[in-house]
Design brief:
Elements (H helix, E strand, L loop, with lengths): L6 H27 L9 E3 L6 E9 L5 H11 L5 E5 L12 E10 L6 H9 L3 E5 L5 E7 L3 H22 L6 E5 L3 E7 L23 H16 L12 H4 L8 H4 L6 H5 L9 H10 L20
Antiparallel strand pairs: 1-6, 2-4, 2-5, 3-4, 3-7, 6-8, 7-8
GO biological process, one term: reticulophagy
InterPro entries: Reg_factor_effector_dom_sf
Protein name: Testis-expressed sequence 264 protein
């Protein structure tokens, strides 16, 4: 069959065939990952997840480096759903100064918290926060089929979210990505925004000044507009440095940890001064707006900020 065909020509045919197979494979992967799929219609409604207890790590740098923290969280507890919180507009803030958080969800709503899982995360440098439930947010989603779906979703979702927010002059920030295994949910809260900012957002690492001019001035006006329900043009998340400093933060870790603890933890003697569900309900009765930044008790080994 190949009589009369030189070895060089035959080798060329093999190379072209391999290249064609590679291109076809990439095309199939792109299609499967959603290259031709549109994000869901952007809308205002109830966010896809409510109150959360989150084990998180904070970082500064390009947002495309967040994948390393997602991988680290997945290694510690593969079954947990993940959240990313992105605080700065990459079109306005230098990439090395972009602030973001990657977290693993320990509990949603009134779900019980596994103290052993908490300790696994804190032993690996994660911290613990409470994120509030909000009634309304700007929201869309995209199918999560492959890792490539994340890149496709980011490039499709954020321009539509930004356009929606600007068109309606909403005050929605910061942006969250919630990974539930089947979809990537993109949303930004329309209330209680300051409670989504971790303490590390306030200042530069090791410093005592706001990280950028945009941090220290732009948000003060935007936050006031949110409170007054004024129509303010909003591009991407603003950072509430000044307002965040006035947030009610628990004075002692012993008073702040109000997690529902699983029966297994109580039987193992791991309740270490953690309040029961009944005590939590009493606290909520006296103050429903407790700070979302309730940190893990020192007894459980919370790492200090580096």
């Amino acid at each position: 069959m190949f009589d009369g065909i030189s070895t060089a020509v035959l080798l060329l045919y093999v190379i072209l065939l391999l290249l064609a197979l590679i291109v076809l494979t990439l095309l199939v992967l792109l299609v499967q990952s959603g290259i031709f799929t549109s994000v869901d219609e952007v809308k205002t409604g109830k966010p896809p997840v409510g109150q959360m207890i989150l084990a998180y790590k904070f970082n500064r740098g390009p947002y495309n480096q967040a994948g390393q923290l997602f991988t680290e969280a997945a290694i510690i507890e593969p079954g947990n759903k993940k959240v990313g919180i992105y605080y700065d507009d990459p079109n306005k803030v230098e990439s090395s100064m972009l602030r973001y958080v990657v977290g693993s969800i320990l509990s949603v709503g009134s779900d019980q918290v596994n103290i052993d899982m908490v300790k696994k995360f804190t032993d690996n440098g994660f911290k613990i926060i409470h994120l509030p439930e909000v009634t309304y947010g700007v929201y869309t989603r995209f199918p999560h089929i492959t890792t490539l779906s994340i890149l496709i979703a980011v490039h499709k979702a954020y321009p539509k979210l930004q356009a929606y927010i600007e068109e309606r002059k909403l005050c929605a920030y910061p942006f969250l990505e919630y990974y539930d295994g089947g979809h990537i949910h993109f949303w930004a809260p329309l209330s209680r925004q300051e409670e989504f900012f971790v303490p590390e957002c306030e200042t530069a690492a090791g410093g005592d000044q706001p990280t950028t001019e945009w941090d220290s001035t732009a948000h003060s006006n935007s936050s006031q507009s949110c409170d007054d329900d004024l129509q303010v043009s909003h591009d991407l998340p603003h950072s509430p440095v000044e307002e965040k400093s006035e947030m009610p933060v628990s004075e002692s870790a012993d008073e702040s940890t109000n997690w529902p603890i699983s029966d297994a933890d109580n039987q193992n003697g791991n309740n270490t001064n953690v309040e029961t569900d009944e005590a939590k309900e009493d606290d909520q009765g006296s103050d429903d707006s407790s700070s979302s930044f309730e940190l893990l008790k020192p007894e459980l080994g919370t790492p200090t900020a580096e």
